[in-house]
Amino acid sequence: MRPVFEWNLGSRSVELGKRTLIMGVVNVTPDSFFDGGRYYDRDRAVEHALQLLNDGADIIDVGGESTRPGARVVSDAKGESSSDVPEESRQPVSEAEELNRVIPVIESLKKARSGAIVSIDTYKSSVARAAVEAGAEIVNDVSGLRWDRQMPRTLGALHCGVVLMHMRGRPEEWRNLPPVEDVVILVKRELRDWAAAARLGGVRQERLVLDPGFGFGKNFEDNYPLLKRFPEFADLRYPLLAGVSRKSFLGRALARNGKDAPVADRLFATIAMETALIYKGAHIIRTHDVRATADARTIADIAAS
Questions:
Q1: What pTM does this model have?
Q2: C-alpha dihedral (165, 10, 15, 211), degrees to nearest 10
Q3: Closest residue by Cα to residue 149 from 227, 75, 39, 230
Q4: Which residues form the catalytic set?
């Protein structure tokens, strides 16, 4: 049985553990690996978010910058990009551009569905602040609050929910990262340290959810130990989120004739892994395919209860 938590989002709390929650993805970007460009328009993004809610999403995660392999990100440190990534795909998204992408979507979504729980997927403190002021109740930071030094203090003052994700390196560095001896030990240690740093910055423990970051700076072979040993993350004593939706390590496992399965052919593998993660203790599943995941969640929750 999963431990039960009350996730404090500021104005309300959400129970985690008795029922798996689904976080539906809305990428307001031209270049995300799965749906880049499809929901770049505000009205299309809001329409898609509303459909995800109707399909069973409990949370809508709105993002305005891709962190797929090869992307460059704005941070204090500089990194070199892989030469085989197109130049236009390597450029970081400015604060102003990210705000222009996500804030109108959040405002319109909250106007259309005032009770919706909205998350902002960002590592920039200024975007996080504006998004919460626009109606978001969760900040989902793929950098673990490490790429913007103001993020912990900003989130401490905002009193919102926080998802702290683990990532090795930065997207432009992923292709050249060295292997690790035990990825589970590494991720557990760093998540513990980063959560402690967040608390020191003012983010209370009851507002934190941890995400081991499947696919984010992990080599292909690292992701399956994360799945197999996922129950070990319960030792950290935080709720757990997992996002594996259509990721490249699934495509590699499904390779035929020497070619990885394309993104469009990874749905069944995604559902299989999401179901396994529910059995192994995930409180929240982040996914593109909400309707299929919601059906799988219903059965997995019954079987695991």
A1: 0.91
A2: 0
A3: 75
A4: 247, 286
CA-nearest of 272, 213, 281 to 243 is 213
Return the percent helix, strand and coil in the chain, to nearest 5. Answer: 45, 15, 40
Per residue of the chain (305 residues), what is the pLDDT tens digit? 799 999 999 999 999 999 999 999 999 987 554 555 565 588 999 999 999 999 999 999 999 998 754 455 554 333 323 333 344 445 678 999 999 999 999 999 999 999 999 999 999 999 999 999 999 999 999 999 999 999 999 999 999 999 999 999 888 888 888 889 999 999 999 999 999 999 999 999 999 999 999 999 998 889 999 999 999 999 999 999 999 999 999 999 999 999 999 999 999 999 999 999 999 999 999 999 999 999 999 999 999 88
59: number of Cβ within 10 Å: 24
Distance CA 179, CA 176 (A): 9
Pairing between β-strand 5-8 and β-strand 13-16 as defined by DSSP bridges? antiparallel
CA distances from 233 to 117, 193, 255, 268 (A): 25, 13, 29, 25
For the chain, domain boundaries? 19-304
Give the rounded distance of the alpha carbon of 206 from its chain centre. Answer: 19
Q: Which amino acid is at 71?
A: A
Q: State how far the alpha carbon of 95 is from the alpha carbons of 43, 92, 251, 287, in Å.
A: 21, 9, 32, 25
Say how far apart CA 41 and CA 20 lie, in whole Å. 30
Query: Which residues are within 8 A (CB) of 96 and not within 5 positions of it... i.e. 6 or more apart?
Result: none
Give the residue carrying structure tokens 């990721």. Answer: 247
Which residue has 């299929």 as its token pair? 292
| Residue in this structure with the two tokens 């809305």, named with its chain if needed | 26
C-alpha–C-alpha distance, residues 277 and 77, integer Å? 34
Of 3.30.70.3400, 3.40.50.300, 3.40.1440.10, 3.20.20.20, the CATH number of 19-304 is: 3.20.20.20
Nearest to 163 by CA among 105, 131, 203: 203
